[in-house]
Amino acid sequence: MSKSWSISTTVRNPERLRDFLKVLKKLEGQPFDTKNQIKYQVLLIKERLYKPNNIPSDFNKYYEDPEEEFPEDIAKKIFDYQGYQDPPMRGRQSVNPLNKLGFSIAREGFGPIIITELGNKFLAGDYDIGNVFFKSLLKLQFPNPWSTDFSEKEGFNIMPFIGAMHLIYRLNKNSDKKGLDKTEFCVFIPTLISFRLIDEYVRRILEFRRTKNKENYLIKFVKDFYKTNDNINKKLNNLFDYGDNIMRYFRLTRYFKLSMDPLGYHWTIDLEPTRKVEIEQLLDMYSGEAINFSDRQEYLDYLADINKPILPWEKKENLLSISESLKNMIVELINKENLKITKREREVLNKELKMLNKSQLEDYVDILRRLKLELNERLKKVRLLNDLNRIEEIILALRDSKQLRKYEPEQFEKLLTEALKIINDEISIRPNYPVDDNGEPVSHSPGGKPDIECLYKTFKAICEVTLNNSRLQWVQEGQPIMRHLREFEKQNPNDQVFCIFIAPRIHKDTYSQFWFSVKYEYYGQPQKIIPLTAEQFSFILETLLNLIKQGKRFSHKELYELYFKIINESKNLKSCSDWEIFINKAIQEWQRCMVRT
Hints:
The chain is α+β, with helices and mostly antiparallel strands. It has helices at about 15-25, 35-45, 60-65, 70-80, 85-100, 115-125, 130-140, 160-175, 180-190, 200-210, 215-225, 230-250, 275-285, 295-305, 315-335, 345-350, 360-385, 390-400, 400-405, 410-420, 475-490, 510-520, 535-550, 555-570, 575-595, and strands at about 105, 115, 180, 255-260, 265-270, 430, 450-455, 460-465, 495-505, 530-535. Helix 1 (about 15-25) crosses helix 5. The radius of gyration is 26 Å and the shape is globular. It starts with 15 loop residues before the first helix and ends with a helix.
């Protein structure tokens, strides 16, 4: 029976691999024997990165209260309680994606645990997640000397990342419909096990698009691929799980463009048009065929070397092609949309490329990408401010708490970023989530940074957002937010600095802790934190929308008055419950005053 390939069935969100790698780092230098395989899984439990299905009732508190110290011996008891037939296998499964993607070398009988140079770069705070996963996925291939999971005997001969690129590139040349929708990607990419099948799969996808009974086509395809009639629905569902997981990894590289609805259910994936030249250079360099290695050590050395593989644009002439392509795209965008650019931006576009050396060209490509992103953001904002229907859509979305809970975290952050930009007189609204070349979030904001930074002439603010409505909201969000705000305060010592915290619902514990920080202090000094439900924030947008319809102006100064009143009144209130009630009344009163003005 044939089998499909996958990246990880253990970790759905690729960014979580960083936490798994951080735990493995604690065991670096030790052998990954059965003892340490178990210990690794126990440490994952201890760090609350893995929660087994069966938790003894006496130990539930360690998951219900993340502030509760979680001793390693308790984590070991929870692990033992599962009664696994092969306990070390759990550790091997958890480390598998780290090994597969070249972040670590951890396997029984292969010396000490090693975190590779690429893995250490991933652990560093200043890493570029797109570059890390691009390097990693470019090296992923089946078969390889490091793994027996996908062997040549089973028909595997594929560099999946390159194979998917070739498939979409050739498909786009033969179809008006560009890219792959969710069904096509999930069914045909995990089953693309050989580069020799690429043209056949292009034919199959075109055939699938023409067929009327798509469900029957998929069932027959799955039966033919797996060479069985057993558990077809289960196998099809597994392909959707694998495909969704693969998509999450691919999109982080920025070489694939993803279009999706806010809930992340319907999506289409295509090659990133702004990287057309790089993609074509990669496709010329690689057919998708797995690279031959003389032995396991050669492959491990290849995985561990961050400078490999050598990329086609490391040659100056290829960098020139990329630079020219990006310049032409930017000029075309400026002319098409009649965009105004600054003198500095014009100088960037008029730079004489032939005078630049290789290193300067690399920097220039980065500058062009940032410029294109900036121009796209300007254009999006102009369109947003003139689109009253979109403003109304955002207001309705913020008021639908049930629907919001289905949002992906990065989509919720994007929604609030759009909402903040509608105010329209900021110096800068800067989300910290990583974005693709078109400014669309590829993941949520990383830890250690505010979700969104807002700079105005009168004041500055960070905006922290969460979809977490549980009693753990305060523990998981509160302390990091207060630390982020204190750091932001230190960076802006001469400014009024606020934190706007937005969630579909604010838990009473969150109100309590923020109120204490506002009324009294957080490590010696009070803070300006304003907790708002998504619905309450929608009233602010509704006020702005009504003013726009009346032809009236709105500035961040009116927003400052509301924020200041909420903070200042806390000094006169006796409890956080009074503050919660007051915030709601203050917004209603502010809304009435603004509309009457």
